């Protein structure tokens, strides 16, 4: 979009982008064995667009948006182009005015839930690994008696090899809770993120995920 | 108001749909536009932005319907959508008292921001679920009357009341546009208040031609 010179062309590209977002929304909805041919309104589209923008790392977008809004023909602003430009602007506004503090307040239920899941997962794991000889060595070396629990929990980050087990736990825990769930944890220096949306589980692991992004996504799942 | 371009006898109106999530805004507008364009159903369009062409008493009317995200966290984005609107359709779910409270909030906000320029419709959707009703029709109607809005009862599921709602809204918007046009013609022009930069190029239908010095094309 940034390449295009005329505001018209930019809007044209924007419409194409929106169309492909709708496409992927429909595709994922129909793969999740929900009703075929779902038609999405702004309730669904705006969050998706916002998410795409966050993932896309487009730095020039704000200036392109302003450019289009200032220079586009007023009659076009009434039309479909105008609508999606407005939506784009709204999404950008939402991102830029996003307050972590505010989010933390609204997040709390999900965040606390995922944190408690995480805590349960970690402590459970540390109970198991307490039997390993390696672990015992560490324990002896570092903390002879009382503060065992803490050190074990901390060092279990290093020990973990497969992610299957904590994953499964998250699933079974979350299944009972409701439709949309998400959990974040750090393992092997990577941030892992598991989410359930529309009855399907997905996950990603990325060392470069910034906190804001993850925070937003959990928030969105609410 | 916002009638742009077109021939001498056409109106363009922007209508914004407001209301809490899950009250059926999208289904409603989809029902409305789908019935008309039954054959060439949504191929490129989705339900966020829909247009509809109408012919009311010989006048062409282009309706652009803007859907909004109703979730509470997007509430702050409202002004971005409803600026410059000619009409607003405020939808609540008759089984959900909270959604009616949200409508009241929207009314307050719209009146504060846009004054009386905007035609408001308060719509109780899902009347097919009348047995679970939590918002009484009398209450809603008296509230609507108290804020200068009209109240409608619809069901997107049964396709009842929706056609009437939009038709009535169009007529009211046309009247409002003509009133504004007249006041402009009389040299007032103040009511247009700068925010509405576009003026209507339109002839008076049957009302007495009072002014119209700067309007007729």
Automatic annotation (TrEMBL), chain A:
GO terms for molecular function: guanyl-nucleotide exchange factor activity; small GTPase binding. InterPro entries: VPS9, Vps9-like, VPS9_dom_sf. GO terms for biological process: vesicle-mediated transport. Pfam families: VPS9. Residues 1-104 form the VPS9 domain. One of its GO terms (cellular component) is endocytic vesicle. Residues 120-179 are annotated as: Disordered. PANTHER family: RAB GDP/GTP EXCHANGE FACTOR (PTHR23101), RAS AND RAB INTERACTOR-LIKE PROTEIN (PTHR23101:SF72). This is VPS9 domain-containing protein. It comes from Hippocampus comes (Tiger tail seahorse).
UniProtKB/TrEMBL annotation, chain B:
GO terms for molecular function: GTP binding; GTPase activity. GO terms for biological process: protein transport; Rab protein signal transduction. Keywords: GTP-binding, Lipoprotein, Membrane, Nucleotide-binding, Prenylation, Protein transport, Transport. Belongs to the small GTPase superfamily. Rab family. This is Ras-related protein Rab-21. Signal peptide: none annotated. It comes from the Eukaryota. The keyword Membrane applies. It comes from Hippocampus comes. It is a lipid-anchor. The keyword GTP-binding applies. Residues 180-217 are annotated as: Disordered. GO terms for cellular component: cleavage furrow; endoplasmic reticulum membrane. It is found in: Cleavage furrow; Endoplasmic reticulum membrane.
């Amino acid at each position: 979009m940034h390449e295009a010179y005329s505001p018209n062309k930019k809007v044209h590209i924007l419409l194409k982008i929106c169309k492909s977002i709708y496409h992927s929304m429909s595709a994922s909805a129909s793969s999740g064995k929900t009703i075929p041919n779902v038609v999405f309104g702004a309730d669904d589209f705006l969050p998706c667009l916002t998410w795409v923008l966050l993932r896309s790392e487009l730095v020039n977008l704000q200036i392109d948006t302003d450019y289009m809004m200032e220079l586009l023909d007023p009659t076009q602003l009434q039309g479909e182009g105008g609508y999606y430009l407005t939506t784009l602007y709204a999404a950008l506004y939402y991102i830029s005015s996003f307050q972590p503090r505010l989010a933390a307040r609204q997040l709390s239920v999900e965040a606390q839930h995922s944190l408690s899941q995480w805590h349960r997962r970690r402590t459970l794991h540390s109970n198991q690994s307490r039997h390993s000889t390696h672990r015992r060595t560490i324990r002896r070396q570092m903390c002879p008696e009382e503060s065992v629990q803490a050190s074990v929990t901390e060092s279990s980050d290093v020990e973990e090899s497969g992610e299957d087990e904590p994953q499964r736990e998250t699933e079974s825990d979350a299944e009972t809770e409701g439709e949309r769930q998400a959990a974040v944890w750090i393992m092997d220096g990577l941030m892992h993120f598991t989410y359930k949306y529309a009855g399907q589980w997905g996950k990603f692991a990325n060392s470069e995920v910034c906190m804001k992004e993850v925070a937003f996504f959990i928030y969105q799942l609410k | 108001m916002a009638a742009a371009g077109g021939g001498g006898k056409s109106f363009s109106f922007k209508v914004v749909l407001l209301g809490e999530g899950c009250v059926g805004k999208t289904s409603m507008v989809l029902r409305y536009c789908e019935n008309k364009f039954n054959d060439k159903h949504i191929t490129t369009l989705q339900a966020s932005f829909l247009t509809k062409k109408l012919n009311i008493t010989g006048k062409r009317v282009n309706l652009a319907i803007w859907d909004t995200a109703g979730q509470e966290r997007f509430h702050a984005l409202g002004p971005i959508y409803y600026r410059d609107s000619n009409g607003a359709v405020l939808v609540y779910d008759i089984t959900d008292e909270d959604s009616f409270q949200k409508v009241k909030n929207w009314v307050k906000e719209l009146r504060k921001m846009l004054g009386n320029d905007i035609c408001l419709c308060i719509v109780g959707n899902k009347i097919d679920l009348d047995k679970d009703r939590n918002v009484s029709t009398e209450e809603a109607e008296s509230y609507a009357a108290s804020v200068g809005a009209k109240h409608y009862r619809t069901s997107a599921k049964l396709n009842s009341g929706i056609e009437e709602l939009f038709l009535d809204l169009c007529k009211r918007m046309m009247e409002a546009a003509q009133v504004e046009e007249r006041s402009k013609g009389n040299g007032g022009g103040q009511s247009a208040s700068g925010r509405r930069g576009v003026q209507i190029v339109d002839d008076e239908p049957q009302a007495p031609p009072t002014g119209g010095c700067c309007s007729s094309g």
